[in-house]
Specification:
The complex is a heterodimer of chains A (407) and B (296). By secondary structure, chain A is mainly alpha-helical. Chain A is 65% helix and 3% strand. In chain B, strand 1 and strand 2 form a beta hairpin. Helix content of chain B is 70%, strand content 3%. Chain B is globular, with a radius of gyration of 19 Å. Classes of the chains: A mainly alpha (407), B mainly alpha (296).
Chain lengths: 407, 296
Amino acid sequence: MSETAVARGLGDELTAPAPGAGKSRGRGPFTLRNLLLLLALALMLVAPIFVPEFWLRTGFAVFGAIIGAIGLNLLVGTTGQLSLAHAFFLAVGAITYVFVSGSPGGTATAVDGLGYPPLVGMIAGVVLAGLAGLVFSPIAARLRGIYLGVASLGLVFIGQHVLNTWTSVTGGFNGRTAPRFELFGFSFGSDNPTLFVANVPFRGPERLWYLGLVLAILAYVFAKNLLRSRPGRALQTLRDSEVAAAVMGVDVQRYKARVFLVSSMYAGLAGVLYALSIGSVAPESFALDLSILYLAMIVLGGLGSVGGAALGALFVTSLPLTFQQYADKLPLVSQPGQGGVSAGQAARLLFGLAIIIVVLFEPEGLVGFGNRIKRLGRRGARRTTSHRPDPTAEPTPSPTPAQGSTT
Amino acid sequence: MTTFLTLLLNGLSLGAIYALIALGFAVIFKASEVVSFMHGSLLLFGAYTIARLNESIGFFPAFVLGVLATAAVGLLVERLLINRLRGAPVISLAIITIGVDIIMLTELTRRIGSDILNVGHPWGGEFVRIGGVGITENRLYAMLTAGILIALFFAAFKFSSWGVAMRASAEDGETAALMGIKLGRVSALAWIIGAGLAAVAGLFLVGSPTPGVAPGVHNVALRAFPAAILGGLDSTGGALVGGMVIGIAEAMAAGYQDQLLFLGRGFGDVVPYVVMILVLLVRPSGLFGTKELTRV
């Protein structure tokens, strides 16, 4: 690790601090950025009081997706291991939760369940998904780049087969319902115990919103810290050059296994939240489509950036739901069953297009666009002074993959 | 024994179709370093175009036009997207084809809707019996056509100036460019061939015993991925072998389903992936792929 890299850990954007731009970019607890973050957090905390139920449900789905996307981004964006198996690890988490916390019975097909408290189920889901990742990692460690991508594709299809076949656990083709989440007697799915805040009844969606918010923030902070720590830097070096990483004393195989573990644990938690948000699990929810959507999230948001993953998850998850909600008001989008482009299809077309545009023009994704605007602002400020550091001098390693890096 | 031979023959014919698709993967990968995740859509597009045109202009013109149209899509993607990203990481290139795939698949699925289109092959779904071993006519023709196309391809690859240019640029792009080989042209041609082969494979894949053109065909194409990977992505011969191995393994698993019931019904569909992962465990670059060497 070079010293610039270590210094970079102190401030997220510690390029040469430009004079004249210090007002918004100085360090300290009261930067504009932090204030904005606090404001956003405060808004999210009071949101359930004002926001209608539909958006709270969407929000919970987004929080789940954020967790999953952060996990995938650690693997693909930070470490450069292309994985299409994310849907599989989500499935492991979701199914484990449903099995461990669900009760035996079932309407269409008989299913088993262990009936433990939901918290145990959630933890088991995360742990088991992590273990699945760890089991896969020896295979992953042997494969590079695109070979890994396709091998992980196989995992999704094998997972689908297991989900369809192992009916006593998964409920088979039709799936099974997911038990509601509950924490020490406080239910997140019903009115028990009844709760009013500012005269607004806090029912399932309101409570789930907070659960999602807390988990997403924890996931975000953990990933941020991980990236700034020594292991995080090791992972970035691994992406840029395995040889260089090995020379620096990074145990390549071990770090690959660990990042698989962490990434699939994130996926497991995302899977549990997914089950909670849909209320049931079915094999078709965890098909290749889901992996591709997650890939779309991190590519659109910005490979290697934790905030980017969150942005991408927000965009990809909420877009189809928003389209559905406003289908009658949008041009070109038709109601279901009328021919024409349905809301879901319109959203998919838009993702496809967005992926192509991002890869072609802004490989750093939404975060890259943001940085570009920031840089423009900074350049304007810099022009007033004569001091002009080279804007292309980026400290290494950058948090995002270099355009020419071999992966 | 007859069952075994029947399964073997059917596996070979399925393998021939997989080999066509896998060959497309390999050619494209060799020429432009792109792993095309959009092959499923190309295949579906080819089959769809043939099925639609067949209604108005008859089968053979529709077939020719369908293959040409698919090749044109391949060329378009190469010119508009891939060519601009020369030298970009393999992962970016793969991701951009995923973007194209999402768009094409969504639009095709929308157009097909819930119908199952019929391509209208002039040959029916009758069984042909060769000494007690049965195979549908469609699969028999598939095997023959694939055999001819693959032979033609390998001849061209070995002897034509394009083949030489292609092998040279795959070996060492920079030197090849210095020798006057136009890398852009090689890569464009590779995409034309890859997409065209996918369309031909699509034609046979939607024929008997498969019901017709439905969006599910997209998934079948993904099973050719293991074929390409198994043989080694940068090996054209490997694509052929990989296709056969996957085809036979899948046919066997489907045929002996009753003996394999402990693995669950429909295990045949996942056999390609199981085989692929097993092979990759032993040989991380596939059976015939170039080993990645790292020089320090």
